[in-house]
Amino acid sequence: MVGRELRLPPLPAGPVAVLCGAGLAAASGVPTFRGPAGLWRRHRPEELATPAAFARDPRLVWEWYDWRRGLIAGCRPNAGHRALARLAGSRPGTTLISQNVDGLQERVPPARPLLLHGSIWRLRCAGGCGRGEWEDRRPRLPELPPRCPDCGGLARPAVVWFGEGLPAGSWRRAAAAASACALFLAVGTSAVVQPAAGLIDLARSAGAVTIEVNPEPTAAAVDHRLVGPAEEILPALVAALV
Ligand SMILES: NC(=O)c1ccc[n+]([C@@H]2O[C@H](COP(=O)([O-])OP(=O)(O)OC[C@H]3O[C@@H](n4cnc5c(N)ncnc54)[C@H](O)[C@@H]3O)[C@@H](O)[C@H]2O)c1
Ligand SMILES: [Zn+2]
Questions:
Q1: Which of 2, 24, 28, 33 for a ligand 1 pocket mutation test, highest count of atoms within 8 Å of Cβ?
Q2: DSSP 8-state symbol, 143
Q3: Please, what's the b/e burial string for 102-135 (b: 16 or more CB within 10 A of its CB; e: otherwise)?
Q4: How far is the CA of 185 from the centre of ligand 2 (A)?
Q5: Half-sphere exposure of residue 165, counting CA atoms within 13 Å on the CB side?
Q6: Residue-wise burial string across 165-197, b where 16 or more C-beta atoms lie within 10 A, e elsewhere
Q7: Could you give the CA distance from residue 193 to residue 215 in angstroms, rounded to a whole number?
Q8: 117 catalytic, yes or no?
Q9: Which long-range contacts (C-beta less than 8 Å, at least 24 apart) are formed by 202-206?
């Protein structure tokens, strides 16, 4: 990409929806799950990001989340996040949809992405005592596993684990945006985690132009692929959209 001109397909007028994945945060230093530098090379997802794993060994699961929190706390939003914030602020009818739990996009106003998989900075009671979610931004937690302040039971990360349902409100709004948009961007996602990846097909079948931004083309059925890193492609793409 560097030094080469980005050749863009014709871009329609009208609402834009953007589905972001871990690749958007790669340039910030947050490891992706899949791809060459993927986190899962050293940690298997089914050992850590499932309700069964948490029931079996909550401390191990929390050690992994605590390590990721510490790592992400030292990361800053990159040019890709800034470009998407610019799009959200300048083009009416833009919806940002994120699978990321890192909180980086939310740090660039006015971006307020719909969070499909929750946030690593929020916790909730695993015992279901009725206390709502709470925020805890400390990069490393003093006690692992952390406890629910109300009932003293185990707390868990307020993220969506494999096999769990998505937050209903975010999902409904994301699906509505995908169905109603003229342009749908799939940015930095391997497009294998469902149901999030299904938004691409939903948008395409509803008539949107679909564009993938990824250095490694995925199996997603899209109209166009912009092959390269999000932090390089998004600033140019957004400049053409606002
Ligand atoms: N930053 C985070 O919050 C984070 C990090 C890792 C995983 N996850 C979780 O992973 C699950 C879904 O997987 P996913 O599809 O988001 O990620 P994934 O790890 O499955 O795939 C990452 C994708 O990003 C691409 N990529 C790598 N560098 C890139 C760059 N510079 N620019 C653009 N694309 C790049 C890779 O080619 C790959 O297709 C989600 O549940 C998400 O919550 C989140
Ligand atoms: Zn509780």
A1: 33
A2: S
A3: bbbbbebeebebbbbbbbbbbbbbbbeeebeeee
A4: 39
A5: 6
A6: ebbeebbeebbebbbbbbbbbbbbbbbebeebb
A7: 18
A8: yes
A9: 202/175, 202/178, 203/17, 203/178, 203/179, 206/178, 206/179, 206/180, 206/181
Could you tell me if the CB of 188 is within 6 A of ligand 1?
Answer: yes
Mind listing the domains of the chain with CATH numbers?
A: 1-30+76-117+166-242 (3.40.50.1220), 32-74+120-159 (3.30.1600.10)
Ligand nearest to the CA of 132: 2
Rounded to an integer, what distance in angstroms lies between the CA atom of residue 226 and that of residue 212?
Answer: 6
pLDDT digits (tens, 9 = 90+) for 154-211: 999 999 999 999 999 999 999 999 999 999 999 999 999 899 999 999 999 999 999 9
CA 28 to chain centroid, in Å, comes to: 13
Model confidence pLDDT, tens digit, residues 43-82:
676 678 999 999 999 999 999 999 899 999 999 999 999 9
| Contacts for 22 with CB less than 8 Å, ≥ 6 apart | 30, 31, 32, 33, 34, 99, 100, 188, 189
